[in-house]
Structures are given as structure tokens and as C-alpha cells.
Amino acid sequence: MDSFIKLSNFSKILPYAQLFRQGMFVTVLLSLFTVVIGFCLALILALMRLSNFRPLRFLGIDKNGYQRETGVLAAISKFNPLNFLATAYVEILRSTPVLVQIFIIYYGVFGMIDLPGIQLFGFIKFDRFFPGVVALGMNSGAYLCEIIRSGVQSIDGGQTEAARSLGLSQVQNLRYIILPQALKNILPAIANEFVVIIKESAITYTIGVQDIMSAVNAVKGATFVIIEPLLVATAIYFCLCFPTSKLIAYFERRMSRGDKR
């Protein structure tokens, strides 16, 4: 296998240009679906982490009706199962490799599910693409959860008090006051997560998703050339990520103008 860069080797890659075009389309599609799934999951997780659901809070009241400050019962009364589950999910997903998560989802979960062997757009294998989207979406949700949570907590608590004085419920307060402002603050971070996913999606070729790296692998197997296909893949990833990051920075500046006094 040739390990030196030769201009003549690029001519060997040219017949496989269609594979790279398809791989680029799959990568973008994979990233879009991942961000949507990740955001929906992250929103649920963030609300779970911010919740004040304590089903055993009655254990914190002593026989005289006073709140216990110390002791086992006081600790149990403060236990929030929703917060515990969401925190455990976030910490586990953020502390384990993406590759391991993809393999567990693909071989462990979807290995027991018979997915239809259809092809989307004529070349995307659904039984490989869907597990890849789910695995990346679950991983992205763990990171986006912290972004959304920090965005919600950045909103001044006085606005919540004002909403209560107007008779708004907690759900209405979140929907109409807190979340719109929080989303404006975290939108650049969510968009940056899309750029990160474009690059991280390269790992899905290990389960057969026909992304850009899958095209590199196919060219390598057919031509025994490796460096040049990698350079082409690098250029494609750069053309996807660099303009996107600059566009995000532009909109971030536009959105921040209204906040300046």
C-alpha cells in the first residue's frame, strides 16, 4: 500500500467521486438528525435535572411538624429520582467513548431488533444509518443537556417571581418566558454542536454507515491508496465545518447586538 503522496494517485480516486458525494450527503443528513434527536432528548433531561420532584419529602417532617435538618430521613426526603436518573445518564454518556456507545447500540440493542433492509435515496442502508443516528443522538443529548440547563439557569430568577405574580403556572413560565430567552442564549452553542457532530459522525463508518470515511475505506480497498483519499476526506470535512462555523459566528454577532447597551 502506497504511503507517500503522489499527484498521480489522485487520478485513481476520480472514478470514486460519487462515493465521496454520497458520503458527504450522508454525513450532513446524519448530523442533522443527530442534532434534532439530541436536542429533544437534552430538553427532557435538562427539565429532569432542574425539577424539584421529591416523592419522599414527607419523611423530612418530624412528629412535631418541623423540617428535619440532618439524619438519614432528611437525606432521603431530599432525594429527587428524576434528577438522579438524568444526572446518571449524562455522566455515563459523557464519560465513555463514543465508539463503545455505538457498538453497544448497534450490536447490543439493534442486534435484537430486525430493522427493515430498505435503502433511503437509493444508497443509504437504513439498518446501518438508523442505529448510527440513535447512538450519536444519545451521546449528543448528554452534552446538549448541560448546555440547555446552563442556559435556563442563566435567566434571572426575578422573572420567575414576576411570572408567578401574574398567575402563570410553572409550565407556562418555562414555555413563554424562560425557554425563549434561554434558547436565544444557547443557540450558538447548539449550532457549534452540529459542527462537532459532523466531525464525530466519521466514527459511524465502523458499523457500515456510508459516510465520508466509508468512501475512504472503499477507495483504499479498491486502489490500495490511503493518503490521498484521507486528504480528500479532510478537504470535504473542512469545507463542511469551516463555512458552517463562520456562519454561526456571524449570526451570533447579529444576535448579540440587541443585548449591548
What is the element layout, followed by pairings?
Blueprint: H1 7-13, H2 17-50, H3 72-77, H4 81-94, H5 98-109, E1 119-120, E2 124-125, H6 126-153, H7 157-165, H8 170-200, H9 212-223, H10 227-257
Antiparallel strand pairs: 1-2
Describe the structure.
The protein has 261 residues and is mainly α. It has one domain (7-256): MetI-like (MetI-like fold, Orthogonal Bundle), CATH 1.10.3720. It is 70% helix and 2% strand. It is built from 10 helices and 2 strands, in the order H-H-H-H-H-E-E-H-H-H-H-H. It has a two-stranded antiparallel sheet. Helix 2 (17-50) packs across helix 6 (126-153). The longest helix is centred in the first third of the chain and has 34 residues, at 17-50. It is elongated.
Beta-strand content bin: under 5%
Per CATH, which architecture? Orthogonal Bundle
- List unreliable stretches of 5+ residues: none
Give the overall form: elongated
Q: What fold name goes in the CATH topology slot?
A: MetI-like fold
Largest sheet: 2 strands, antiparallel
* Count of distinct structural domains: 1
Which percent range fits the helix content?
over 70%
Helix vs. strand class: mainly alpha
> What is the number of E strands?
2
The overall pLDDT average reads: 86
How far the N terminus sits from the C terminus, by CA atoms, comes to 61 Å
Radius of gyration: 24 Å
Instruction: Provide a count of the helices.
Output: 10
Q: What is the ordering of alpha helices and beta strands?
A: HHHHHEEHHHHH
